[in-house]
Amino acid sequence: MRVVFGLVLILGFALAGFAVYLANGYVNSYRVALAKAKSGEGIETVEVYVAAQRLEYGDRLDPSLVKVAKFPKASLPEGVFLKTGGAAPYYKPWDELDKATRKTLKTAAKEAGFDPIKTGLRVTDSPDLFPETGEERYVMRSIEKGEALIVARLTDPGQDAGITSRLGPGMRAFAIKVDVASGVSGFLRPGDRVDVYWTGRVAQMNDEMGRGSTDVTKLIETGVKLIAIDQQAYGDNSSATIARTVTVSALPEQVAALAQAQSTGRLSLALVGSGDTSEVGPVEVDQMSLLGLVAPEPEKVVEIEREKVCTIRTRKGGEMVEIPIPCTN
Fold first, then answer.
1. Measured between alpha carbons, how far is 126 from 120 in angstroms, rounded to an integer?
2. Where are the alpha helices (DSSP H) in the chain?
3. Where do the domains of the chain lie?
4. Higher pLDDT, 93 or 239
């Protein structure tokens, strides 16, 4: 009996020791994995520049305002500034490209089979965050502490943070008067895109009444980019305000069309959805088409041909007499 009891006791101690050994091994492996996770071992990282404090619109970027942090290489934001120099590859929007670049990109797009207007130009070579020339950068939109610095939120070296920094090559700034109705009830923000509609009276010719006119609303520009609302050139304000003017970025020929339209009628804006790249065809609505009416066709006047009468004149005494005769022609 004592022998059996001793064997059971020894077996129990052996099992307990084996359990402790397994638990210790599990805890050690967990500690090693946790240490690796904390040190970032096994995840490839890249050193990038981040804001050391909150930066506001218009602030001059100084080396003391930034610091270096490690980001996972697989999750780098497009256009983030790297410690090794320059910025990560990013796509520059189509409306920020000059005419020569657009022409070259269109030619390349035909061969490669992509839409350059939607994708823009892929930029792989950009200046350092702090170039050796000493040219300064400015903040174009507020940046939170610890947020990565990207190209879209900073000006180019040597460029200030004014409205000219938002104009691409060949583009011009044009102001449009708006109110609560034409300005989409204050929900416009810099960076949004809008369609521009013109409403006015157009002269037309009527067969019966001569010259007349009719009210017409027509889409004159699509996807125009807003770069400022009143005197606000950045979109961080979340409250809705009723603007009196909006400033758009447009080509010179578009500026001429908008100026002519604004002087001859009323302009209204329609907000385009984010990421909407659909093409809009010609749009024109007048009063007749709005109400579903069809203009009456003018009555045709049929001229009745008169019967031709041929006569000869004969003098009888002192009188001239016409005598009917058969017509030969």
1. 16
2. 2-39, 99-112, 116-119, 252-264, 287-291
3. 45-164, 171-291
4. 93
